[in-house]
UniProtKB/TrEMBL annotation:
CDD domains: SCP-x_thiolase. It comes from the Bacteria. Residues 237-378 form the Thiolase C-terminal domain. Transmembrane segments: none annotated. This is Thiolase.
């Protein structure tokens, strides 16, 4: 028996703006441009939007700031901020609001000018009081701890981590919107400047500008739009800690809990998944999430990604836009997981288009491996 929320809503509008570097624009202006693009994509007017879901790293009261800037008076609004996974959680929250009849058209949006506003890594994953004496550079130090533990416990190598970055770059080279393009070898990754052992600069995500927005409506309304809808199939979140020092096991994330619940809600099996969009802020993320979502056994993630398995032409399509490592990462990346999944489901991905793209798994990560949210989007064929 399928879950009552499965297939009940769909994304009908998608907009992107300012990917890479957008000098002269504020974070809110970029967000506004992506909203306009999403409205045009859906054939809708701003006045049609009656629910707003937003999270940013630059506005404490995100939905209120968005509402004011856009001149909206929504019936429903939410600023849940659990880091970069917020937007996957917003997919679930917007679906609940639509299904309850609290709104008719839900906007999910994000914008950041992180790169051109200063180019520094700005993170809401600040160290907790008990970590400060050690002088961590968060969030990098936290993820380096997880990588070092995985290396120690499972024999994962820096070369295996590097293969994640190489695969991401190969996908980015097929994406004209990707910020980092060009050759990248395993040797390049290993020779890059060490930031926090064992992670080099090439193991770390980009610092870019960028904005993205999507519009959800109930499934019956989605049938009237011009472009193929991307249907919500399921989602689940899990959160075990805030600070990295409180993480129960540095090699096991809460994706091991959110994943199974999301799979059950979506009613799909791993072999049904055509595309994995994993929050790859660091190379270790991809390895951890492949394990915790059940695509390989715990400890085997490093060996799993070798031989181009997650690169173009490999056995498993992972982060086909180039990911946060090579495409775009403006502080919070979760909206861009959604954007690539919708693009693939619509068959609008150009040279990187997958032969089959009916089921997309999106996995968002927030804080220092803290909040984990798994979501599924699907084509009409999945209903």
């Amino acid at each position: 028996m399928s879950h009552p929320l499965r297939g009940r809503t769909a994304i009908v509008g998608l907009g992107l703006a300012g990917l890479g570097a957008a000098p002269g624009f504020s974070a809110m202006e970029l967000l506004g441009l992506s909203v306009r693009a999403a409205l045009d994509d859906a054939g809708m007017r701003l006045a049609d939007i009656d629910a707003v879901f937003a999270a940013t790293s630059s506005h404490a009261f995100a939905s209120m700031s968005v509402v004011e800037y856009l001149g909206l008076r929504p019936r429903y609004f939410d600023s849940t901020n659990v880091g970069g996974s917020s937007f996957e959680m917003h997919l679930l929250q917007a679906t609940l609001a639509l299904e309850a009849g609290l709104c008719d058209a839900a906007l999910i949006c994000y914008g950041s000018n992180q790169r051109t506003a200063g180019g520094r890594l700005v993170s809401m994953s600040e160290p907790q009081w008990h970590e400060v004496p050690y002088g961590p550079r968060h969030p990098i130090t936290a993820y380096a701890l997880a990588a070092a533990r995985h290396i120690h416990q499972y024999g994962t190598s820096r070369e295996m981590l590097a293969d994640v970055a190489v695969a991401a770059r190969q996908w980015a080279n097929l994406n004209p919107d990707a910020f980092a393009r060009g050759p990248l070898t395993r040797e390049d990754v290993l020779a890059a400047r060490m930031v926090s052992d064992p992670l080099t600069t090439a193991d770390c995500c980009l610092v870019t500008d960028g904005a993205a927005a999507c519009i959800l409506v109930r499934a019956e309304r989605a049938k009237d739009v011009a472009k193929p809808p991307a249907y919500f199939l399921g989602a689940a979140g899990a959160n075990w800690h805030r600070s990295i020092q409180a993480m129960p096991d540095l090699t096991v994330t809460a994706a091991s809990e959110s994943g199974p619940r999301a799979f059950a809600m979506a009613g799909v099996a791993r072999e049904d998944v055509d595309l994995l969009m994993l929050y790859d802020a660091f190379t270790i993320n991809t390895i951890l999430f492949l394990e915790d979502l059940g695509f390989c056994p715990k400890g085997e993630g490093g060996r799993f990604v070798q031989g181009g398995r997650i690169a173009p032409g490999g056995g498993l399509a992972v982060n086909t836009n180039g990911g946060g490592l090579s495409c775009v990462h403006p502080g919070m990346y979760g909206m861009f997981l959604i954007a690539e999944a919708v693009t693939q489901i619509r068959r609008e991905a150009g040279a990187r288009q997958l032969a089959r793209a009916d089921v997309a798994l999106l996995h968002g990560n927030g804080g220092t491996l803290s909040s984990q949210v798994t979501a599924f989007l699907g084509s009409e064929a999945t209903l």
